[in-house]
Specification:
Blueprint: H1 3-25, H2 28-52
Length: 87
């Protein structure tokens, strides 16, 4: 999920709660406060759920070497100077 999608989902939920509270109370201040609370709470909740879900093994990409085969250490553990080592 992209960050923009996360913000849009939280924004839609915040607007929904704000309208719901406004229709019930007819107070703009309370509706805006509750919309903000709903926005932040849903943002934190959805982000926490996204962190808890582990990606599939095929979805993992080495950030240093995207062409590295899946399931390998990639270029993170590769020697930058291949060849015989002098000790």
């Amino acid at each position: 999920m992209r960050p923009v999608e996360l913000l849009v989902m939280a924004g839609v939920f915040g607007v929904f709660v704000g309208l719901f509270v406004f229709m019930g109370t007819r107070e703009w201040a309370l509706a805006l406060i509750m919309a903000g609370v709903a926005f932040v709470a849903s943002l934190v909740f959805i982000a926490t759920l996204l962190i808890a879900v582990a990606p599939k093994s095929g979805d993992r990409v080495d950030p240093v070497d995207p062409d590295a085969p899946t399931g390998t250490a990639g270029s993170v553990h590769r020697d930058p100077h291949p060849g015989p080592r002098e000790h």
